[in-house]
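To the wet lab folks,

You asked to see what we're planning to order before we commit. Fair enough. Below is the target structure as tokens, and below that is the sequence we designed to fit it. If anything looks off to you, flag it before the synthesis order goes out.
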């Protein structure tokens, strides 16, 4: 896997991507953040097995914060869900 500077299946800018992701319904955003957390965690595991301990620790920290963010957004969804039509 090669890390890239853009999302190959998305034609907008990174700012537009952030805006589009931020415009998701909160339950969908929570799911996205959870999936991203798992991806970053997986990358951290791979780097750990390659002996890149500092990088792995940083990725694990990022993964945890993304998971925490998904939980916070899920709470926001629970608050606004009754008002969604």
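Sequence we intend to order:
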């Amino acid at each position: 896997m090669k890390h890239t500077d853009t999302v190959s299946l998305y034609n907008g800018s990174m700012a537009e991507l952030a805006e589009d992701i931020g415009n998701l319904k909160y339950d969908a955003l929570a799911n996205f953040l959870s999936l991203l957390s798992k991806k970053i965690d997986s990358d951290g595991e791979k780097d750990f097995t390659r002996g890149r301990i500092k990088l792995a620790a940083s990725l694990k920290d990022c993964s945890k914060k993304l998971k925490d963010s998904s939980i916070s957004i899920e709470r926001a969804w629970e608050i606004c869900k009754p008002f969604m039509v």
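Structural context that might help your review: The mean pLDDT is 95. Residues 26 and 36 are 15 Å apart (CA to CA).

Thanks,
Computational group
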